[in-house]
């Protein structure tokens, strides 16, 4: 019986060794399990949404942006209109200044010719003629001032008419 018992003990020891090596193999295979489970876990990088949800989000965004865009467009158009009015005003001022320059040149030319005529006339006549020449010169200057004022008022009236037409057209 001792021989059968001894063979059972050896068989049991070999089974234990086999079980220990199996446990070691399993332990080495399972020791990396937490890392493997983390690596193999599926993650949602991109969430898929239904099309109606996307359309609702697009519409909400459009509803939010549309008033701002409309406001910016109105500001831009108002600024463009203001610049156009300013351009017209500057053009009218330019025309007014050109009119002033041309009338001044005309006045200088006519004054020079009148002065030379007065000098010729004053040299021939007496003291009464000199007084008439001074009076004539004063009247000529007054006439030139009045012509200048009339031209200026005409240019201003045309400018105001343009502005009135623009304001009526804008309404």
TrEMBL record:
Its main location: nucleus. The keyword Nucleus applies. GO terms for cellular component: DASH complex; spindle microtubule. Pfam families: DASH_Spc19. GO terms for biological process: attachment of spindle microtubules to kinetochore. Keywords: Centromere, Chromosome, Cytoplasm, Cytoskeleton, Kinetochore, Nucleus. The keyword Cytoplasm applies. InterPro entries: DASH_Spc19. It comes from the Eukaryota. Residues 108-118 have a biased composition (Polar residues). Residues 97-127 are annotated as: Disordered. It is found in: Chromosome, Centromere, Kinetochore; Cytoplasm, Cytoskeleton, Spindle; Nucleus. Residues 97-107 have a biased composition (Basic and acidic residues). Belongs to the DASH complex SPC19 family. This is DASH complex subunit SPC19.
